[in-house]
Amino acid sequence: MPVDTPPRSTATPPAIPADDVVVAFRTQNSNIRGRLVRLGATLDQIVVPHAMPDLPGRALSEALALAALCGSALPQGGNLNLLTRSDGPVSILVADYTASGRLRGYARYDAEKIAEIARSGTRHDTAAALGNGHLAITLDSGPGQERYQGVLAFESAPLSATTAAYFQQRENLPTFIRTAVAEHYVAPRQAPQSDTRWHRRAGGLMVQSVGASLEGGVEQDDDWKRVEMLAATVEDLELLDPGLTVERLLLRLFHEEAVAIERVIPLSSFCRCSREKVENVLLAFGANELSDMLDDNGKIVVTCEFCTARYVFSLDELRAAGS
Fold it and tell me: How far are the Cα atoms of 78, 87, 126, 285 from residue 155, in angstroms, in the given order?
């Protein structure tokens, strides 16, 4: 899936938001396409409600940044799903990107293993958190288009590296990806309405050579090699620093390549769940199955894995809805 190529525009580009944005760019001297993502408040909105420990929180944050980088190449109405299944303490990661610019995600993890890691005092990276498994990327370009899924195995590899390998092996596209995740301290005077002073942040850079070729796994294009080397100089702090604008960062990295910004996509959180949808699912069960779902208070409680919204139903309510 190459980075999209929108038509050139002579209009003055709008100001680029400091956060919660994907910026598509092109290096004019080498014609390499790329994406840069910054996630701030949107990341908090997705991750914080799950009240998960640090390690799965970092893994989910990285997955969301990658979904934004990869999915933002899709046309309006498209959707990208990034899914990992593995044997590590974080066994499942799900990150959804819906064009244009909406994100959601969740993680499943072994709470006891995560607690053991926390007690050890050793800071594990997300590669160790995932262990060995498979990455699946599902692409839906919109109505009337064929759905496509590609799967790639990984062994204790960084998720960004596995995603780059996916494009190189499955799509034959030379790809460089780097992501960074951290917590950022915000002084009370900067965020007076906030309940916490620590906020999650994620950033990422992705560049792809659309016209280059891979022969025997080796890139043959000199322009691509040069831009890849420049991209590899980016540091985590540069990807995460809210005080460093996207324009300045791209200029710092690729000033000799003459960067042209082609598209700016604001990012936000979303969820598809609703009380009506949950009710319709429950109505598909029989009376005995519904009775088995009752909690100690005689209610059926369904929690959305994505947004953690809770929906509470009584048997009488469901009987009335199904009659």
Answer: 30, 10, 12, 40
